[in-house]
Amino acid sequence: MKNIRLFKPCIGEEELNFIKEAFDRSWIGLGPTVEKFEKEWSNYLGGGFSIALNSCTAALHLALKVFNFKPGSKVLIPSVTFVSTAHAVLYNNLEPVFLDIDEKSFSLCVKDLKNKITDDCVAIIPVHNGGHPCEIEEILDIAKSRNLKVIEDCAHCAGGNYKEKKLGTYGDIGCFSFEEKKVMTTGDGGMIYTENKELYNKIKSFRWCGIDRDTWKRVKEQDRNDLDSYHWHYEVTELGYKYNMNDLAASLGRAQLKKLDWMNSRRATLIKRYNQNLLGFPFLKQTFQYKLEDSAYWLYSIRVKNRDNLIPYLKKNGISTGVHFMPIPLHPLYEKFNVDIPNSLNLWKQLLTLPLFPELEKEEVDYICKIIKNFNWDKKDIFLD
Ligand SMILES: *Cc1c(COP(=O)(O)O)cnc(C)c1O
Question: Is the pTM of this model over 0.85?
Fold first, then answer.
């Protein structure tokens, strides 16, 4: 009996070796490995500044907080995303404005963005949904003309490019997730990237209780000058959070970053295999118009009209599936922010995510596709367009 997971982290010897270094040093909190990982991440993305955190949810929270927006101001976000994108808005006493999705990209619809912008909007959080790059250039143009900040939610697309520039380097701030299921992992973890030094300095103190120097720096200064009796001294001016990454997680991150490009290209190979099997099959559509050359796709997502029968059938055949995502205004917490999002409300019911992770075998993809084709399809479920 097969048992194919939906996601599976790609971890092994390399990660163990990096963790062993942290053990040998006996420093597993906020320390030198976090700093190394941040430097490597900055170099990988394009030379800006990076701040390692314990989640992307924390990253999104701080990315909005650093601008100190007036409470009650509005933030434009796509309706089909993980709840953290919206939670970050509420954490900051701001109000989410949900945008409909574009049927072709399943990211925010630029036309709807233009419709829903008002003078009390202060920021946009575009999500590169599933790893598929959203229309970031158009979004930046609109943001510039209306003086809005842009925070890219890159939880799905670490390592992905758009026009040979890394996603997460287009907006004012990019937020990444290293949660267990995402394209690379530190167990739990997140990263902020920005090319603005001032934003970087502020966020850095927010991530550790509002303290402006981290523990490791204090130790270093103490070593350098053991006559300095003020090595313990710090001052807090901001109500910060306990959001820092630790050296154990950063050890995993350094090993994962080394193989991120390989993992992304491996996923692209598997997506090609899915497409070879499934393109043209009349009972399903692709959710994304995959551009596989230099992107980082997290999801292999299809659209089917009878998802709710297909899911248990696939489960019976040992194939795990998921749905990414139910529109956020359908969650009770966000009901009161409901607005007109017709595409999101119609199309999300067709979404189905199939297994995708670097160590998935091509033969397993073939098996999944064969099982899907053998389903008892009903003529009325054909896509006619
Ligand atoms: C997973 C996810 C997050 C949150 O990431 P964590 O690291 O789990 O906090 C934020 N936004 C999107 C779109 C996500 O999918």
Answer: yes
DSSP string across 241-305 = -B-B--HHHHHHHHHHHHTHHHHHHHHHHHHHHHHHHHTT-TTEEESS----SS-----EEEEET
Say if ligand 1 is within 6 A of residue 57 CB.
yes
Ligand 1: centre distance to CA 224 (Å): 40
The protein residue whose alpha carbon is closest to atom 8 in ligand 1 is 179
Q: State the Cα–Cα distance between residues 41 and 33, nearest whole angstrom.
A: 12
pLDDT digit string, tens, across residues 216-269: 566 666 665 555 666 777 888 889 999 999 999 999 999 999 999 999 999 999
Residues 6 or more apart whose Cβ sits within 8 Å of residue 170? 136, 137, 140, 150, 152, 162
Please state, in angstroms and rounded to a whole number, the distance separating the CA atoms of residues 169 and 306.
Answer: 39
Residue nearest to atom 5 of ligand 1 (CA): 56
- Looking at this protein, which amino acid is placed at residue 349? K
**Atom of ligand 1 at shortest distance to CA of 324?**
15
Cα–ligand 1 centroid distance for 82 (angstroms):
6
* C-alpha to C-alpha distance for 332 and 336, rounded to whole angstroms: 8
